[in-house]
Amino acid sequence: MYGTAVSEDADDAGIKQWDEILSEMIFLLKEANEDTCTKVNKYQKEYDKAQEEFDDKYGMFGEKLRTEAEKAEEKKKGTHRIYMLGDVPEYKEISECYFNELRALSDYRDECKSKALELFSKWFWDLWD
Q1: By the 8 A CB rule, do 58 and 88 touch?
Q2: Angstrom distance (rounded) from CA 5 to CA 7
Q3: Between the CA of residue 75 and those of 70, 80, 127, what are the distances in Å?
Q4: Neighbour-count burial for 61-89, b at 16+ CB within 10 Å, e otherwise
Q5: In this structure, are residues 71 and 78 in contact, taking their beta carbons and an 8 Å threshold?
Q6: How far apart are CA 119 and CA 25, in angstroms?
Q7: What's the pLDDT at 4?
Q8: Of 41, 19, 25, which Cα lies nearest the Cα of 114?
Q9: How open is the CA angle 28-33-35, to the nearest 5 degrees?
Q10: How is the chain split into domains, by residue range?
Q11: Is the dihedral of CA 89, 91, 97, 101 positive or negative?
């Protein structure tokens, strides 16, 4: 009877540990996905607002910022200059903040993916037992 209780306790502890490992893998895989990640770009709303203002003020891709000289040069070369938020001083700061945060989020999701795959690789054969 005593041996059975110890065995059940050990089984319960093992099951709890296994559930924790699976939960960690699930969490990390969800965090690795841009659509299910719990972290968001804290500058998203401000960036979207700035982009809307930029488009209203300067046209899509800053069309109104292009000079006649640029247009003539583009016509010769067969190119077209596109302006972005960061090209205009009044929006440079929000653009930099947004893209720095975007890179940090991408790094975080990549780290989560790597950790999840390490766990998956470590426990691969145990997933079917």
Answers
A1: yes
A2: 5
A3: 8, 8, 61
A4: ebeebbeeeeeeeeeeeeeeeebebeebe
A5: no
A6: 7
A7: 47
A8: 25
A9: 130
A10: 2-128
A11: negative
Joined together, the tokens standing for residue 19 give: 């559930």
Q: Express each pLDDT in 25-67 by its tens digit.
A: 999 999 999 999 999 999 999 999 999 999 999 999 999 999 9
Q: Which residue has the tokens 């929006």?
A: 91
Rg, Å, the chain Cα set: 26
- pTM confidence score: 0.78
CA angle, 69 as apex, 68 and 72 as ends, to 5°? 85
Q: With contact defined as beta carbons under 8 Å apart, do 31 and 109 qualify?
A: yes
Give the 3-state secondary structure of residue 106.
helix
Of the candidates 95, 106, 109, the one whose C-alpha atom is nearest the C-alpha of residue 29 is 109
Contact predicate 50/91, CB 8 Å: yes
Amino acid symbol at 18: W
